[in-house]
Amino acid sequence: MTSTTGDLTIRPQHPKKVTLAKLAEPFSLELAADDAGVTVTGVTIDSRDVQLGDLYVGIPGAKHHGAAFAAAAAASGAAAMLTDAAGRDLARAAGVAELPILVSEGHPRAILGELSALVYGTDTLAAKTFGVTGTNGKTSVVYCIAQILEAAGLRPGLSSTAERRIGDEVIVSNLTSPESSELHGLLARMVERGVEGVAIEVSAQAIGRHRIDGVHFDVVAFNNFSQDHLEEYGDMETYFQAKLALFAPEHAHRGVVVVDGPWGQRVARESQIPVVTLATEYGQSADWHLAITAQTLDGVSFVLQGPEGAHFRGRVPVFGRFMAENAALALIMLHEAGIPLAQVEAGLANGLIPVHIPGRLEEITEGGNGPRFYVDYGHTPGAFEAMLDALGEVAEGKIIFMFGADGDRDTTKREDMGRIAAAGSDVLIVCDYHPRSEPPEQIREQLLSGARSANHATLYEEADPRAAIRLAISLAEPGDVILYAGPGHEDYQEVAGAFIPYSARDEVRGALREAGLLA
Ligand SMILES: CC(=O)N[C@H]1[C@@H](OP(=O)(O)OP(=O)(O)OC[C@H]2O[C@@H](n3ccc(=O)[nH]c3=O)[C@H](O)[C@@H]2O)O[C@H](CO)[C@@H](O)[C@@H]1O[C@H](C)C(=O)N[C@@H](C)C(=O)N[C@H](CCC(=O)O)C(=O)O
Ligand SMILES: Nc1ncnc2c1ncn2[C@@H]1O[C@H](COP(=O)(O)OP(=O)(O)OP(=O)(O)O)[C@@H](O)[C@H]1O
After folding, report:
1. In contact, 306 and 288? CB cutoff 8 Å
2. How would residue 226 be classed by pLDDT, with cut points 50, 70 and 90?
3. Is 360 in the pocket of ligand 2 (CB under 6 A)?
4. Cβ(164)–Cβ(171) under 8 Å?
5. For residue 221, how many other CB atoms are within 10 A of its CB?
6. Spacing, Cα 179 to ligand 1 middle (Å)
7. pTM as predicted
8. Ligand 1 atom closest to residue 206's alpha carbon, by position in its atom list
9. Domain boundary among 92, 119, 146
10. Which residues does the annotation place in the binding site?
11. Is 283 or 131 the better-scoring residue by pLDDT?
């Protein structure tokens, strides 16, 4: 049975006590002599998440100084606080007199990872650790790693945008890559549960914001790179450098890089750690090569060949050559960590890797000859291109595509998303996604303007995604495929500051039942 935890920060069930003196020394923290023997058992940077005995870390953020919540943290049972000098003054001025305070000279976030590792005992791990970065497909690769570890007889744990997972225990994800205090708490819980391999999705934002500090990955991977997050990075080079930073000795021992495109080739050249390369296209020189041998809507068969005769014949039960690529990358990462392909092969029936990823190309219908309906998390031009190219190769009937775009995020990708969506589909329905503070009709118009430039699909505009789902179903015939990109596993719509409950997967299920297409 699966159990779900909603706690912000997961912690070990049997924590150890660490004295403030032991924490102060390696990080040169200021500490009153009287407080040296005070002990803590956990770490959090959120006052609303404090548990008895925690070290509360008051971080200066974009909106608040966390030290402003020192009284609330103390009331919830924090044993001590770590903050900067401004935070200490803020807390003392607010009358927080009793709480022991460790003071750091620099930004507390810069030492948070190493310090959390010390508190949780995760500074060295027996489990193999795998980190995945890139623009599209990180979550998918992380799931492939976990599923392949299981096939190899090893107990997996994972952290992704969709969820964090330890065996059957599911922990809700807020960020793609958790804050480092949360990550080390999660790792400590995994150690208690006997996890032998951990796959972690690493966003560019996480690398720059110290969220993976204190983890020294056995193997990291870079899968692909295309436009996203320019609202934060401004240009592609800055975004690229943020991801390249993972390939450094302070973060990882070795890497695997997909070198199909120029960005991957640059990672292979500029990496500061040893890497092996994977090519999925003919004529590209690399250590490993992937060849697709057969594909239908129901799956992709492939052969992976590597150095010294390494060889794997496999299959993923989902359409799209990119899913075979994700699986191949995961296989090579395990191989690089010393887990032989033969050990994986022995645990699989006919090489079938049971890839099931929440909200990624998730089929809501149940196969068969009627129209098929998939919900997906793709929200970049690159993901649209990969999915629609793949569908174009295997779909027998019409491709009906529906999507909307994020408000308050990279607006420059919208025209491309519209154009690629219309070029690759027969029918395109533009609806709302998370408009946030932007006028939704303005977002739809930008998408439609891109779509018109492709001069291909029949275009529809239907703001309400619930109505758009029903429109898509009404236009579909047996053999057609409906692909709803964007919401994936999510269970809300963000509109003008409000989080409105909305699960695309549940809504599609309901609409298919109404239409008599699902039992
Ligand atoms: C821009 C950014 O990175 N913001 C992060 C930052 O928020 P902030 O600086 O605004 O924090 P703040 O509200 O000023 O609060 C300061 C401190 O006070 C604490 N606080 C605040 C209120 C309170 O009542 N009690 C309390 O303790 C906060 O926990 C925080 O430690 O610190 C917060 C606490 O950890 C994060 O949740 C928040 O991520 C926001 C939600 C975010 O949108 N992050 C994005 C940019 C992100 O990281 N995305 C990537 C990539 C996703 C992808 O690939 O698509 C990801 O890894 O998720
Ligand atoms: N290797 C790939 N190349 C291109 N597109 C892919 C690849 N793998 C998956 N995708 C597409 O990208 C979408 C997002 O996949 P996934 O959630 O695995 O990526 P992600 O990198 O974790 O995304 P995010 O950073 O937003 O969490 C998928 O739903 C699919 O449409």
Report:
1. yes
2. confident
3. yes
4. yes
5. 32
6. 9
7. 0.91
8. 57
9. 119
10. 47, 134-140, 203, 211
11. 131
Last residue of a domain, one of 284, 314, 346: 346
Q: For 331-375, what is each residue's pLDDT tens digit?
A: 999 999 999 999 999 999 999 999 888 899 999 998 777 899 999
Take residue 314 and report the two structure tokens written for it: 């496999």
Residue 385 has, within 13 A of its CA and on its CB side, a CA count of: 14
pLDDT at 441 over 60: yes
Answer yes or no: is pLDDT of 230 > 90.
no
Q: Is the pLDDT of residue 6 over 60?
A: no
Residue pair 289/255 in contact by the 8 Å Cβ criterion = no
Please tell me the distance between residue 216's alpha carbon and the centre of ligand 1 in angstroms.
Answer: 23
Domain encompassing residue 229: 125-346
Q: Whose CA is nearest to atom 16 of ligand 1?
A: 61
Evaluate whether residue 1 is within a structural domain: no
**ipTM of the predicted structure?**
0.94
Reply yes or no on whether the pLDDT at 1 is more than 50: no
> Given ligand 1 and candidates 63, 135, 205, which is best to mutate, with the most ligand atoms within 8 Å of its CB?
205
Beta-carbon contacts of residue 241 (< 8 Å; ≥ 6 apart): none
Q: Which ligand has the minimum distance to the alpha carbon of residue 112?
A: 1
Report the separation in Å between the CA atom of 73 and the middle of ligand 1, taken as the mean of its atom positions: 18
Span from the CA of 209 to the centroid of ligand 1 (angstroms): 10
